[in-house]
Design a protein that fits this description.
Elements: H1 8-18, H2 24-38, H3 50-61, H4 76-90
Helix pairs in contact: 1-4, 2-4
Length: about 100
């Protein structure tokens, strides 16, 4: 499997960090959310699909983010979880253990 795939390792890390297995919609939205948070940018409405909005509502209900607006704020725990998940999903070949 390649970068950005929902591998067994990604599933394990998501369970360890969040308590459940993330789906592909969540995995694909995480890099964009992280980018917006890191750069203090609003999420572009035209870049968000209906599925993305559903994911944001899911995260809001779980208490990971406090808003489903274009400028969501997130908990530190969720930010760390996203970082860990993205590291496994996208950066494995670049990480020195």
């Amino acid at each position: 499997m390649g970068r950005g795939e929902l591998t067994d390792e990604v599933k394990k890390v998501s369970v360890d960090q969040l308590g459940y297995v993330v789906d592909m919609a969540e995995l694909r939205l995480m890099p964009y959310l992280q980018y917006c948070i890191m750069n203090s940018e609003a999420m572009s409405l035209h870049k968000l699909s209906d599925e993305d909005h559903e994911v944001l509502h899911k995260w809001d209900k779980k208490g990971f983010i406090d808003s489903v607006s274009i400028r969501p704020r997130l908990t530190k725990m969720f930010y760390v979880a996203i970082t860990e998940i993205l590291c496994v999903a996208y950066c494995q070949d670049s990480i020195i253990n």
